[in-house]
Amino acid sequence: MSTESSSTANTNSEKETLGFQTEVKQLLHLMIHSLYGNKEVFLRELISNSSDAVDKLRFESLSNPALLEEDPELKIRIDFDKDNKTITVSDNGIGMSRDDAINHLGTIAKSGTADFLSALTGDQKKDSKLIGQFGMGFYSAFIVAEKVEVNTRKAGLPANEAVRWTSSGEGDFTVETIEKSSRGTEIILHLRSDELEFADAFRIRGIISRYSDHLSLPIEMVKENLDEEDSGKAVEYEVVNTAKALWLRSRSEISDEEYNEFYKHVAHDYQEPLIHSHNKVEGKLEYTSLLFVPKHAPFDLYNREAPKGLKLYVQRVFIMDDAEQFLPLYLRFVKGVIDSSDLPLNVSREILQESPAIESMKSALTKRVLDMLEKLSKDDQEKYLEFWKEFGQVLKEGTGEDYSNREKICKLLRFSTTHSNSAEQNQSLDDYISRMKEGANKIYYATAENFSAVSKSPHLEVFKKRDIEVILLHDRIDEWMMGNLFEYDGKSFVDIAKGDLDLGELSEEEKKEQEAVEKENEDLVDRIKKALEDKVEDVKVSSRLVDSPACLVLGAQDMGFQMRMMMKQAGHQVPETKPVFEFNPKHKLIEKMDQESDEEKFKDFCLMLFDQSLLAEGGAIDDPAAFVSRMNQILLAAL
Ligand code: ADP
Ligand code: MG
Question: What would the 3-class secondary structure string for 11-76 be?
Answer without folding.
Answer: CCCCCEEEECCHHHHHHHHHHHHHCHHHCCHHHHHHHHHHHHHHHHHHHHHHHCHHHHCCCCCCCE
